[in-house]
């Protein structure tokens, strides 16, 4: 058998096989070269073509275009046979990849640990463009029916889209009811590297809370933009942020915290407090930015926007509209006034810190917990 990246040693036997030809009534013999090895041979490039949803014929064409025939001096027939054989191996392994822990314990395939890790990581890897299209949607049959459109839009094969969607759904079902940190649960259950586990945590978190991501105003945001925000929400606004052994700790937002956010309305309903807050922030900003006049003029509207977002998060609908609200109530006004990312960072830093100086403001812990996430999310979402 031909394999382009053979790393395993094999033993070659020359075997003479005799058989009886029923058509000619003549006993015949043929010599065969048989290779016997104890390790399952898998070509990484062919595996990636299989994962990408290529047919055998398309995979063979890609391999030919890559110069494999000249490199290894093989015929088209051998290349086709090798590709088909490896595709069969991958298909037989697929059921084990659905439960990665079983891969190490099975006896059918002798696969070294480093190759197992590669198989798992690549199988669960996903395209950011695909994840962006399904992010926040319910991982249901209805969404799966729309994958034809997703495939056409992203130029990712339908077979690959279905694999990625099924992986999202499988991970979601496995970890949604587990106690303990979400990222760690995903990493342990599916043996994924840290960053990939974090990306899956974002997918699970968005699917659970059904955040709106498809509106036109949000189209400029990438999957990684949302993933970073998800990490912030998971680490700071879920029950797990204060108790790491609660049920659904990193999947559901902390309802007590969301209820406490309503107390922040005093920053905009108390006129004296609002004026004091503005005065402190403007004093800190004066002379440090070219858009100071715009900052001063828009302070009250921006503050009302951020505080009202906080006060409404106790409602499920407003949780779903969280990212739209950030764009409409803060990011778009700042963009229209030509703020840079440095300006946004400077403003949010002083806006957050100045509230702690206000004499009659008592909700410092809730404010810090809220604005820490808001600042990080806005800075990530603020594409100049």
Describe the structure in your own words.
This protein is mostly helical and 384 residues long. Helix content is 62%, strand content 6%. It is built from 21 helices and 2 strands. It has a two-stranded antiparallel sheet. The model is unreliable at 1-13 (pLDDT under 50).
Structural class: mainly alpha
Order of helices and strands: EEHHHHHHHHHHHHHHHHHHHHH
Unreliable segments of 5+ consecutive residues: 1-13
- Overall strand count: 2
Indicate the overall shape. Answer: elongated
> What is the count of helical runs?
21
Report the β-strand fraction as a percent range.
Answer: 5-15%
Strand order, main sheet: write it out.
1-2
Q: From the alpha-carbon coordinates, what is the Rg to the nearest angstrom?
A: 29 Å
Secondary structure topology:
Layout: E1 11-21, E2 26-36, H1 44-51, H2 56-65, H3 68-72, H4 76-97, H5 101-105, H6 113-124, H7 128-134, H8 141-145, H9 147-154, H10 158-175, H11 182-190, H12 194-209, H13 223-237, H14 255-260, H15 266-269, H16 271-285, H17 292-312, H18 316-320, H19 322-336, H20 341-355, H21 364-381
Antiparallel strand pairs: 1-2
Helix pairs in contact: 2-4, 11-12, 12-13, 13-21, 16-17, 16-20, 17-19, 20-21
């Amino acid at each position: 058998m031909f394999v382009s990246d053979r790393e395993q040693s094999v033993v070659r036997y020359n075997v003479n096989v005799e058989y009886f030809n029923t058509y000619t009534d003549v006993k015949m013999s043929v010599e065969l070269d048989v290779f016997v090895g104890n390790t399952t041979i898998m070509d990484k490039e062919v595996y990636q073509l299989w994962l990408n949803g290529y047919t055998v014929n398309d995979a063979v064409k890609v391999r030919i275009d890559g110069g494999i025939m000249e490199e290894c001096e093989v015929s088209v027939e051998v290349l086709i046979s090798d590709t088909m054989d490896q595709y069969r191996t991958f298909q037989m392994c697929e059921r084990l990849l659905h439960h990665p822990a079983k891969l190490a314990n099975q006896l059918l395939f002798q696969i070294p640990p480093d190759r197992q890790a590669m198989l798992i990581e690549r199988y669960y890897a996903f395209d950011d463009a695909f994840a962006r299209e399904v992010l926040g949607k319910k991982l249901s049959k209805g969404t799966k029916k729309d994958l034809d459109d997703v495939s056409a839009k992203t130029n990712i094969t339908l077979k690959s889209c279905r694999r990625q969607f099924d992986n999202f759904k499988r991970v979601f079902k496995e970890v949604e009811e587990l106690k303990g940190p979400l990222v760690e649960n995903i990493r342990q259950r599916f043996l994924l590297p840290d960053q990939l586990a974090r990306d899956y945590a974002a997918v699970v978190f968005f699917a659970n809370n059904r955040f709106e991501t498809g509106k036109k105003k949000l189209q400029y945001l990438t999957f990684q933009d949302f993933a970073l925000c998800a990490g912030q929400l998971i680490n700071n606004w879920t029950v797990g942020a204060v108790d790491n052994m609660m049920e659904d700790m990193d999947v559901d937002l902390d309802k007590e915290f969301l209820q406490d956010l309503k107390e922040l309305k005093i920053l905009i309903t108390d006129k004296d407090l609002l004026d004091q807050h503005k005065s402190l922030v403007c004093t800190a900003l004066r002379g440090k930015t070219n858009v100071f006049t715009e900052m001063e003029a828009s302070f009250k509207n921006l503050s009302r926007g951020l505080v009202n977002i906080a006060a409404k998060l106790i409602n499920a609908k407003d949780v779903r509209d969280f990212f739209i609200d950030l764009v409409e109530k803060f990011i778009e006004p700042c963009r229209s006034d030509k703020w840079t990312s440095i300006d946004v960072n400077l403003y949010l830093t002083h806006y957050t810190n100045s509230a702690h100086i206000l004499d009659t403001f008592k909700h410092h812990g809730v404010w810090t917990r809220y604005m820490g996430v808001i600042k990080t999310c806005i800075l990530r979402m603020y594409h100049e």
